[in-house]
Amino acid sequence: MTYDVAVLPGDGIGPEITRAAVAVLQRAAELSGFSVRAADCPIGGAAIDQFGCPLPDDTVSACKDSAAVLLGAVGGPRWDNLPGDLRPEKGLLSIRGALGLYANLRPATVYPALRSASPLRDEILGDGIDIMVVRELTGGIYFGRRGRCEKDGEMVAFDTEEYSAHEIRRILKVAFELARGRGGRLCSVDKANVLESSRLWREIANEMAREYPDVRLTHMYVDNCAMQLVRKPNQFDTIVTGNMFGDILSDEASQITGSIGMLPSASLGEGSLGLYEPIHGSAPDIAGKDLANPIGSILSAALMLRHSLGHPDAANAVESAVRRALDGGLRTADIASAGGEVVGTARMAKSILSALQ
Ligand code: NAD
287-335 pLDDT, tens per residue? Predict the structure, then answer.
C-alpha cells in the first residue's frame, strides 16, 4: 500500500522541519509494511515569490488528490508589507477552507523528560499532562456577520457568534470519538450562562452523550476552564469548544507544556483527508541555521499516521521514538536544560529515526 502525501514546506524553518518529518514518516511506514510517496508543493511566501500568489491552484489540486497534507509554516518579514490577500498567511487560511477542514486537534503533552520546561510547578503537573483540545475551526464569531454602523451619533462595530446545529453536531462527533479512544472523558467548554449559541451547543452535547455511554461528558464555562488549565490541568482528558474559545484555550494549553517547538496539530474534515502542521510559525530568526526543533513537525506526522492513514501502531512508534530520543538526553536549543546535550535539527531528526522500532 502506498499513500500520497502533499508536503507544503512553506517559509523560514518550514523546509528543514518538514524534511525531518518526511524522513521519519517514510521510515515508520516502511517498518509497518507500507510506503509514503511525498510530493513538495509551494505555499506562502515561497509560492508568492515563484507564482505571485500564496496558494497556487496546482497546490490545492495536489492536496485534494492526496491522502494527507503535511505543512511546515508560512510567513516572514519579506512578505509583511504585501496587501492582505497576497500575504503568506492567506495561503494557509485558503487551504484549510478549500479542504473543508472544520476540526482542529491540538494535543498538549508534557513529556516526563521535559517537565522542567513547563512553567507550572511540579506538584501541579502531578502524574503528567495529556490533554487533547478539539476546536471548531470554520464557524462561530470569526465567520459570523460583522460590520459597523452609526448609533446615537457614534461608530459601533459588531461581530456575531453564530452556530448551526449541524456545525455543532459534527465537531462534537469528532470530540466524542476521540475521547472514546483516549481517557473516556470529554469536557465541553462554553459560556451557556450568557450566550444562546452556547445553550444550543450544550443541548446538542447532552443529546449526543446518549450515543456515547462510554464517554463521561461534563460542561465547563470558558472562564473557569482558563483558570482550571493552570490550577489542575490533569483533570482534563479531551476538551471540545467553539472557534474563539478554542483559539485561546489551545494556546494556553500549549504553553503549559513549555515549548512551542514540540507541539503538533491536525485539522480534519468530513473524510479522512487532513492537514498536519506544528503549532509554531516560520521562526525566521533561526531559519536555515540548523537550530529548529523538528519534533512538532515529526509529531504532526504521527497524527497523520493515526488520523488520515489509519496506522495507529506506526503513530505510536513515532511517538515512542521521540520519547526515547528525549529520554536519551538530546535537546534542541529551545528545550535545552542543564545536563542535556544540545543538538541541531538534523541530529535530533537522525536520532529519532534511529530510535524508531
Ligand atoms: P514563531 O512561532 O515563528 O516564533 C516564535 C519564537 O519561537 C521564535 O523565537 C522562534 O525562533 C521560536 N520557535 C518557533 N518554532 C520553533 C522551533 N521549531 N524550534 C525552535 N524554536 C522555535 O512565531 P512569530 O515569530 O510570531 O512568527 C514568525 C512568522 O511565522 C510570522 O510571519 C508569522 O505570521 C508566521 N506564523 C505562521 C504560522 C503558521 O504557518 N501556521 C503560525 C504562526 C506564525
Answer: 999 999 999 999 999 999 999 999 999 999 999 999 999 999 999 999 9
| Whole-structure pTM value | 0.94
DSSP 278-333: ESS---GGGTTTT----HHHHHHHHHHHHHTS--HHHHHHHHHHHHHHHHTTEE-G
Closest CA to 163 of 140, 145, 180, 135: 140
Give every CB contact of residue 314 below 8 A, 6+ residues apart in sequence: 28, 29, 31, 32, 305
Q: Where are the domains of the chain?
A: 1-102+260-357, 119-256
Q: Is 119 exposed, middle or buried (0-12, 13-18, 19+ CB in 10 A)?
A: exposed
Nearest Cα to Cα of residue 344 among 355, 329, 333, 356: 333
Residue 355: all three cell numbers together: 530510535
Instruction: Quickly name the fold that domain 1-102+260-357 has.
Output: Isopropylmalate Dehydrogenase (3.40.718)
285 lines ligand 1 (CB under 6 A): yes
Q: Tell the CATH topology of 119-256.
A: Isopropylmalate Dehydrogenase (3.40.718)
CA of 19 to the centre of ligand 1 (A): 17
Cα–ligand 1 centroid distance for 166 (angstroms): 34
CB of 334 closer than 6 angstroms to any ligand 1 atom: yes
